[in-house]
Specification:
With 88 residues, this protein is α+β, with helices and mostly antiparallel strands. The chain has 4 helices and 3 strands, in the order H-E-H-H-E-H-E.
Length: 88
């Protein structure tokens, strides 16, 4: 897998979770994060939390499910679903 595969996937979907990328490419979340971080550093992808309270309250969610990446040129404003019990 190369960075262009992730770029194409991101451009198609606009907004994905770390878990989505790891599952789609059949790689570990840390490996996916490393490749996504390259796009973040290039200014093409922005990292976000699923909700404003993620990482500050219950700590029960899988971080791969709440770590959201958005392709900068995307017109998408899709709200990904978060696990029940999370503040929205």
């Amino acid at each position: 897998m190369i960075l262009s595969d992730i770029r194409n996937y991101m451009q198609q979907h606009g907004q994905v979770s770390l878990a989505d990328v790891a599952l789609h490419f059949d790689i570990e979340p840390d490996a996916a994060r490393g490749m996504l971080d390259i796009w973040v550093k290039k200014g093409k992808v922005q990292r976000r939390a699923a909700t404003s309270s993620c990482g500050t309250s219950c700590s029960q969610c899988d971080t791969a499910a709440t770590e959201i990446y958005v392709w900068e040129s995307s017109a998408f404003s899709v709200q990904l679903s978060v696990p029940d019990g999370c503040d929205k």
